[in-house]
Amino acid sequence: MINFIIRGFGRYAPEKVLTNTDLEKIVDTSDEWITTRTGIKERHVVADDQAASDMAFESAKMALADAGMDASELTHIVCGTFTPDSMIPSCACIVQEKLGISGQACVDVQAACSGFLYALQTARGYLMLEPDAKILVVTSEVISRRVNWEDRTTCVLFGDASGAVILTSGTEEESPRVLDSMLAADGKLGNLLTVHGGGSAYTYKLGEPVGEEFFVQMAGRDVFKHAVRSMSSICNDLLERNGLTTTDVDVLLPHQANYRIIDAVGRKLEIPEEKVFCNIHKYGNTSAASVPLALSEAVESGFIKDGDLVLLTTFGGGFTWGATLVQF
Ligand code: ACO
Fold first, then answer.
1. Nearest C-alpha neighbor of 264 from the set 244, 288, 235
2. What is the Cα–Cα distance from 140 to 85, expressed in whole angstroms?
3. Sheet bearing 177-185, strands edge to edge
4. Catalytic residues per the record (predicted)?
5. How far apart are CA 79 and CA 91, in angstroms?
6. What Rg value do the Cα atoms of the chain yield, rounded?
7. How far is Cα 197 from Cα 224, in angstroms, rounded to an integer?
8. Are both 3-173 and 178-327 of the same fold?
9. pLDDT at 269 exceeding the cut of 90
10. How far apart are CA 253 and CA 278, in angstroms?
11. Which of 71, 87, 237, 288 has the most CB atoms within 10 Å of its CB?
């Protein structure tokens, strides 16, 4: 039996902040609309010379320092992103190069906003096969380059950021320990949230301008409905599988997509608001980066304390969703 121990947490958000008031100058929107419908007040956006790997590099360095580890000790890099620097090489390979190391197995995992829980589960799989592995699980998203800045229904929702953890095996006495995880998807609902452009189903010719399909397109209301239903039901399934109930949960940390979704999931699970971590007002929806970014902040601020049972849950395009239990 392998114990999956998180050795370090890291996060990074770019310096540039875009407030709701700034957005009022770009599209026909208002701070009041964005705040009441989403809870978002501001989001971070990359500088012109930054890509996903640059942010991943920063959060990876923080996680390694937190773990007291040198990059050369890593055996695997698993990167969750739907906005990698390029199709080839993968973001994981570029992060490896930036860390000044080589030889590690490097792979990107694409599960949209569920990217972190999928990447973490991939890392647990590697650890089952290679218990001595030391794995960087890093997520990074540059969504500001994949939203249509003329579409007010999507561009106000997202932000750029990165989050990372270091996962190794350990003893039952060590913590934080990943206890269990469940993942799910339903490809029939894929068309409700898409970024088609750049994919092989679309034919492009050199010099052609890009169209709307290159950017996030979303049926917001449908996403909302499925997000609440899927996250709450997989959380209940995971708790039940572990002989637990929502009253055992000390902290619920959901994907930060929209405050109303976070609130609705908490209510459905009957977990009181004061146990639900939320930082969406500062970052917006940072997709795969949102959970490790929130985790890192929740640990540093003392919102998550030693001994806490923490329930993570995500939902994203695909549709994909998941839940993970971590014992601190
Ligand atoms: N500013 C002002 N008005 C707006 C804006 C805006 N930014 N965006 C939409 N509106 C208008 C609409 O045009 C509409 O106007 P109309 O009534 O005149 O037609 C009105 O506001 C209401 O629009 P709705 O879409 O019905 O608003 P709703 O309350 O559903 O909120 C929202 C929209 C915030 C997008 C919500 O549906 C939502 O949060 N959905 C989930 C989105 C999400 O989290 N996606 C990420 C999922 S995870 C991933 O993998 C990326």
1. 235
2. 10
3. 105-109, 76-80, 134-141, 161-170, 3-12, 177-185, 320-327, 309-316, 251-254
4. 113, 255, 285
5. 7
6. 19
7. 23
8. yes
9. yes
10. 7
11. 288
For 201-215, b where at least 16 C-beta lie within 10 A, e where not — what string? eeeeeeeeeeeeebb
Residue 285 Cβ contacting ligand 1 at under 6 Å: yes
Q: How far apart are CA 197 and CA 209, in angstroms?
A: 11
- What is the model's pTM? 0.97
Nearest-5° Cα angle at 293, 289 to 295: 125
**Region 208-229 average pLDDT:** 95
CB of residue 257 inside a 6 A radius of ligand 1: yes
Atom in ligand 1 nearest the alpha carbon of residue 255: 48
Domain layout of the chain by residue ranges: 3-173, 178-327
Q: Where are the alpha helices (DSSP H) in the chain?
A: 20-24, 31-38, 52-67, 91-98, 115-129, 152-155, 220-241, 259-268, 280-283, 290-300
Res. 203: pLDDT tops 90: no
pLDDT at residue 204 greater than cutoff 90: no
Taken as a whole, the chain contains a residue count of 328
| CATH class assigned to 178-327 | alpha beta
Q: How far apart are the first and last CA of the chain?
A: 19
- Look at the block and give the residue holding tokens 């994919």: 199
Structure token digits, residue 296? 């890192």
Hey, what amino acid is at 122?
Answer: T
How much is the average pLDDT of 208-218?
94
Mutate to test the pocket of ligand 1, among 153, 216, 255, 259 (most ligand atoms within 8 A of CB): 153
Q: Is 113 a catalytic residue?
A: yes
pLDDT the model gives residue 18: 98
What CATH architecture is 3-173? 3-Layer(aba) Sandwich (3.40)
| Three-class DSSP category at 118 | helix
Side-chain-side CA neighbours of 138 within 13 Å: the count stands at 36
Spatial CB neighbours of 165, under 8 Å, sequence gap ≥ 6: 6, 7, 8, 9, 10, 63, 120, 137, 292, 295
